[in-house]
Design a protein that fits this description.
With 80 residues, the chain is α+β, with helices and mostly antiparallel strands. The protein has a single domain, classed as 2-Layer Sandwich (GMP Synthetase, Chain A, domain 3). The protein has 3 helices and 3 strands. It has a 3-stranded mixed β-sheet. The mean pLDDT is 90.
Length: 80
Amino acid sequence: MKDLVEVIARSLVEEPDEVVVTETEREDAIYVELQVGASDMGKVIGKQGRIAKAIRTVVKAASSKADKKVIVDILKANES
C-alpha cells in the first residue's frame, strides 16, 4: 500500500521530493502516513477533501483481499 500511495501523491504534487510515505502494521490495521510539503497540502486534500477521499478509496479497493483495514493519514511535512 505504501508504494501505491507514494505513486499517487508524487503525481499530484509540485515537489515530489518532499513526499514521504511510512507504513506501520498493527494487529488491527495497516496505517499509512503521507507527508507532503506545506505548499502541496491543498493539492493532496482537494476541495472539500475530494482528492484525499479518492486516495483512500483507491487504497481500500487495492487492499480488499487483505484481512486488515488500511488507514491513510495525510500529514504536513515539518518545516526546516
